[in-house]
Each structure stands twice: as structure tokens, then as C-alpha cells.
Amino acid sequence: MTTLQYHSKLKGTLAITDSYHTETALRKEKGLYKFIWVRKGSITVEVDHQEMLLAKDDVISLTNLQHLEFKSIDGEYFTLLFNGNFYCIYGNDHEVSCSGFLFNGSSHLIRFTLNEEEHRQLTEVVQAMEKEFNTADSLQEEMLRITLKRFIILCTRVARQRLDITAEKESSFEIVRKYYNLVDEHFKTKKQVQDYADLLHKSPKTLSNVFSTCKLPSPLRIIHERVEAEAKRLLLYSNKSAKEIADLLGFEDQASFSRFFKNMTGQSAVQFRNQPGANA
């Protein structure tokens, strides 16, 4: 496979590769959503400065906001990448139900391990996608989009099964997804559960019960973790000062941001930015 790419007239990008760690140009491209699937052995990656070991048939999904680094490659892996111009997960959420679930801007990564049948199904989709990359005709773009959608749906289905999202929990799951999406959209200006309860036409107590049913952190914790994740990204991958970050994230002043960050991480913003390995 090595690397196969498709670029549409509307600046859409779809790519698959088994050597993403060496694809300098592709790794520099902004706005790419990613799936990483370990096919053999293991790899060690760092996502937003948090290291994780991925073993055979582990799959993770990353948004365009999350920073990925490869620490070691002790096996074989597959990466699927696409941007919003090729397939908008928000505009097509009714088709794949992945926004706010597989893809959200928080520090909670969706990670699951494929069983033998799921491995077979996903392999078939990848093989179909490879074939379409090599079929240059007027239908190529739409066929690639269809196979991408199949890949996303299969991953969504597996992840939902791992979280035991049954038919009885479906309505709760939809509330959770909508909540994550709203937090992604408004976390800089809305930091109270009541704000999101109003947008969802639910009471804060109802939201707490829903998140508890789905065995997730509390609604307030979700907001705090989203703000924390953004603060960490800005500290690690931008030159903005703590005051500028405080303003950008909607804090009244630098002091309130500093208190929040210390409470969440146990470190000051300066300590976090200057820790060994930061900005490596």
C-alpha cells in the first residue's frame, strides 16, 4: 500500500498509508481527521503529550485538533486520513453518528480492539478503498466517499458495542453526543452545565443521570476537560502567553486561568510548558 492520496477540486483530502510516521508532507497538512489501526505487533504514540501503547488490532480515532507523535514502531499499522472538505462529519452526522463520539476535542480518546470478524470486515473496506484509489474515473470521488463512510460506520458500531450502547440506552447516547458537540462549539464562552442543559432543553440533573448511565465523567467534568485539553495544546504548540490563552479561553483574567489549570493538572502553566519533552 505505502501511501495513496486523493485530492478533490474543492480541496478535499483522503489518504491511506502504512507509513504515516515517514510522510512528512502529509503530517504537515492541517485539518485531517485520523484513524490508526495496528495490524501487527505494537506501536507507541503520543497524543497531546500523553503516551500510549497500541497493540495488534487496537484502533484509535483523532480529530484535526489532536497532536500525534510516533515514539516507536514495533509492528505494522494503517492510517486513514481525511479532511472536512472531503467528508464533513458534522454535516453528515445523520449518516455516521460519529461527531461527539469517535471525534471530539476532549482528552478522552475513543480506543477499541477489533475481534476476528471485525478485523475481517474492516480489512474488506480497506481493500475496496485501495481499489478505488486506483480507479481514475468520474465516479472515483463518490466511491471513495462511500467506502470512507463504511469505514467510519463500522468503527462507530464497534465502539458503541464496547461501551454497551444498547437500544435502551440509545436516547441517552444521543444526548451525550449532542452534549460533546455543544461543548466543542461553546467551551470558550459557556462553562456551566446549566448553559448546555438550556441548549438541550434538559435539566442539569437529567444530564448528570444520563452521563452516569453511560459510565462517563460528569457533565461539568467534560467541560473542564475540554478547556484543559485546549489549554494544553496552546501551551505546547503555540507561542501564546498565559494571559493570551486565558483571554482566548474566556477566563476573566490570567489568575483565574492559572487556578483552573493548576487544579486540573497539578502544575502551573509555566511548569507544564517547560516540562522535559514539551514542544519536542
From TrEMBL:
It comes from the Bacteria. Residues 177-275 form the HTH araC/xylS-type domain. Pfam families: HTH_18. InterPro entries: Homeodomain-like_sf (IPR009057), HTH_AraC (IPR018060). GO terms for molecular function: DNA-binding transcription factor activity; sequence-specific DNA binding. Keywords: DNA-binding, Transcription, Transcription regulation. The keyword ATP-binding does not apply. This is Transcriptional regulator, AraC family. It comes from Bacteroides pyogenes F0041.
